[in-house]
Amino acid sequence: MKYETLHGVQIPKIGFGTWRIGGKRSIDPSIEEISFKALQSALDLGYTHFDTAEFYALGYAEELLGKAIKNSKISRESLFITSKVWPDHLHYDNVLKACEGSLNRLKMDYLDLYLIHWPNKLIKLEETFKALNQLVREGKIRHVGVSNFNLKDLKKSKDLCETPLFTNQVSYNLPDNKYVKKGVVDYCKENDILVTAYTPVKFRNLNINKTLKFIAEAHGATSFQIALAWLINQPRVITIPMSFNTQHQKENFDAAEIELTAEEIQTLNTLYKR
Ligand SMILES: NC(=O)c1ccc[n+]([C@@H]2O[C@H](COP(=O)([O-])OP(=O)(O)OC[C@H]3O[C@@H](n4cnc5c(N)ncnc54)[C@H](OP(=O)(O)O)[C@@H]3O)[C@@H](O)[C@H]2O)c1
Description:
By secondary structure, this protein is α/β, with parallel strands linked by helices. It has helices spanning 32-45, 60-72, 92-106, 125-137, 151-160, 178-181, 184-190, 210-218, 223-232, 246-254, 262-271; strands at 3-6, 9-12, 16-17, 49-51, 80-85, 111-116, 141-147, 167-171, 194-198, 237-239.
């Protein structure tokens, strides 16, 4: 695995997402078993960064993750756990309550990283950051970040955060360059804020694109792995693919070892009009 080192923390370039673990917008008992197995195999494979949220399956993803970690006997300190507060909960008291809820479900006494899941124009960032800064001082969260933030709100968050703002988690993959166009990706790279790329492999034609296939074959890899390697080749970019499938989980984890040549990166950038 390759790592980013930021503010004294080593964080793996490739972590594991948990959207759909235990359900989507509600609990889905029919996928409880495959969800738990997916978490167990991810832990067995050596993933150490897990990304979850109170929103995922109404907190059930956090509960299953907590159980899988407890079951694995892996020490809490060797893991990096990210969770997120939902935009309806951004008033001061609600942030504190939401964090307590996540910690209880995960059966943990701290989170490594806590993110504002989406901005909420109706609640002032000042109020939300008052609570987030307090949670850091109390040791309940180690780092603060945001998700789906545009440049204006990102800059404001950086100013309001008493500790270095850790990440902006955004949708970012080969064809998706919304946040590049908005100037967010460059701003993060220039200001030591991690870009956590979500939905890194879920895009149209990934599996049939001839150029991607050609580069993949040269590395004895899959097109999915090349999409991940392209992302994490960039400084200050990490990613969090999700898969229920153990083989896919392993391929995603191993993608960190792929070294793309400058020419291959140029070919991909041209192909996706970057
Ligand atoms: N902050 C936010 O607002 C936000 C929004 C969306 C996502 N996220 C986070 O980002 C994580 C990842 O995003 P995502 O789940 O939307 O998309 P993703 O990880 O890009 O794609 C997941 C899909 O790709 C398939 N897949 C994964 N690896 C594969 C491989 N090596 N080969 C073939 N198929 C593969 C999976 O199917 P199989 O299960 O069959 O492998 C699954 O259907 C989420 O789980 C969540 O933690 C955050």
